[in-house]
Amino acid sequence: MSKLQRKTALVTGAASGIGRATAQALQAEGARVAGIDRDAFAPDHGLDIALKVDVTDPEQLRAAVAEISDNLGPIVVLANCAGVSPGPFAGHEMPDDVWALTVGVNLTGSFNVCRAVIPGMLAAGGGSIINIGSVMSKVGNPGYVAYVASKAGVLGLTRSLALDYAQMGIRVNTVCPGFIETPMVARSLPDDPFEAQAVLTSIRDMHPVGRLGRPEEIAAAVLWLAADASFVTGSEITVDGGFTAR
Fold first, then answer.
1. Residues 215-229: what's their mean pLDDT?
2. What is the chain's mean pLDDT, rounded?
3. Are 51 and 64 contacting, i.e. CB atoms less than 8 angstroms apart?
4. Looking at the predicted structure, is the pLDDT value of residue 99 above 90?
5. Residue 1: what pLDDT?
6. Taking Cα atoms as reference points, which of 46, 47, 105 lies closest to residue 80?
7. Which of 62, 67, 133, 229 is most buried, most CB within 10 Å of its CB?
8. Is 81 helix (H, G, I), strand (E, B) or coil?
């Protein structure tokens, strides 16, 4: 029997991309899965609970966590997959609203969800939090200073929370993906199809394995951290096709 059988998991950004793949993978292991997203879910989402929630709004989050816990039981697995990556903008041209949105969703939003679920995890005797970082948590990227800063911050958030709760049964880790075949990556491409293909080829060539990753490959790392990695906390698992090995 899976260690996740009948455990309650919350996945943010669950309507698409890595979040959707993670929610589906957790369900396949027998978990009760709730998904939240600021975007609408597909009618066939198949989740136990799917709620339209903005992770930058603490009040919405508290209400969502209460509803999920009341209906599915205490949340003991959290996968923070919600993320945005608007750009490119040179640093001095970065609009205030783009900076606020990017840091608000990627970093503050991740903290907001952690803060909302940790009391329930403590009451339940422990849990596992997996934050989604990026290879850009570790390296710079021209034109994406807000994204890089926010994802680097996720590593600090993870390490500090891991130390706060290491003796209380809550593990906190980060998965750092390379470029993954997701709607977020697709939205970052130029509108012109020839330019878009050139950019995709360039991105592919940054990965020694010769391709972009698939959402389910990131979900597999999340599953391991959620269920089997009992001695792993405060760590980052890089799943990037060799991107950061260069």
1. 96
2. 95
3. yes
4. yes
5. 63
6. 105
7. 133
8. coil
What is the DSSP secondary structure assignment for residue 73, as one 8-state letter? -
Q: How many CA within 13 A on the CB side of residue 59? A: 0
What is the distance between the alpha carbons of residues 184 and 119, in angstroms, rounded to a whole number?
31
pLDDT in tens, 101-126: 999 999 999 999 999 999 999 999 99
Active-site positions?
147
Q: Which residue has the tokens 């809550």?
A: 170
Could you write out the DSSP letters of every residue in 141-188? -TTBHHHHHHHHHHHHHHHHHHHHHGGGTEEEEEEEE-SBSSHHHHHT
Using alpha carbons only, what angle is made at residue 134 by residues 131 and 138, rounded to the nearest 5 degrees? Answer: 115
Q: Which domains does the chain have, with CATH numbers?
A: 8-180+214-245 (3.40.50.720)
Q: What's the confidence (pLDDT) of residue 67?
A: 99
Contact 89, 38 (CB under 8 A): no
Q: Report residue 207 as tokens.
A: 């990965």
169-200 residue pLDDT tens: 999 999 999 999 887 787 777 778 888 788 88
- For residue 88, say if its preceding peptide bond is cis, omega within 30 degrees of 0: yes
- Regarding pTM above 0.90, the answer is yes
CA pair distance 98, 87, nearest whole angstrom: 8
Buried b (16+ CB within 10 A) or exposed e, 19-40: bbbbbbbbbebebbbbbbbbee
Query: How far, CA to CA in Å, does 83 sit from each of 5, 79, 181, 228?
Result: 27, 12, 14, 25
